[in-house]
Write a structure and sequence with these properties.
With 78 residues, this protein is mainly beta. It has one domain: OB fold (Dihydrolipoamide Acetyltransferase, E2P) (Beta Barrel). 0% of the residues lie in helices and 50% in strands. It is built from no helices and five strands. It has a five-stranded antiparallel β-sheet with strand order 3-2-1-4-5, with no helix packed on it. It is globular, with a radius of gyration of 12 Å.
Length: 78
């Protein structure tokens, strides 16, 4: 069963990853406390991510799967 944590932290870096098979963007988000995770493939949230979010405090859900994968979802930027 995956673990889900509600977090809020300053976004430090955004790295664009390869598109999904369906051509949708995916990102690796890194936060000031060292926490990082990817947006899920084919998630509509990836379209809202921009470089203007770097340095801002972001609220998000951090998902840790049983296999150790880390995902960022439900991103709420100011």
């Amino acid at each position: 069963m995956p673990m889900i944590f509600k977090k809020q932290n300053t976004l430090a870096n955004i790295k664009r990853l390869k598109n999904s098979r369906n051509g949708n963007p995916q990102f690796l988000l890194t936060f000031a406390n060292g926490l990082s995770g990817k947006t899920k493939a084919n998630s509509g949230e990836a379209y809202a991510i921009s470089d203007r979010m770097i340095g801002q405090s972001i609220a998000f859900d951090y998902y840790l799967t049983d296999s150790g994968r880390e995902y960022i979802q439900n991103i709420q930027a100011p």
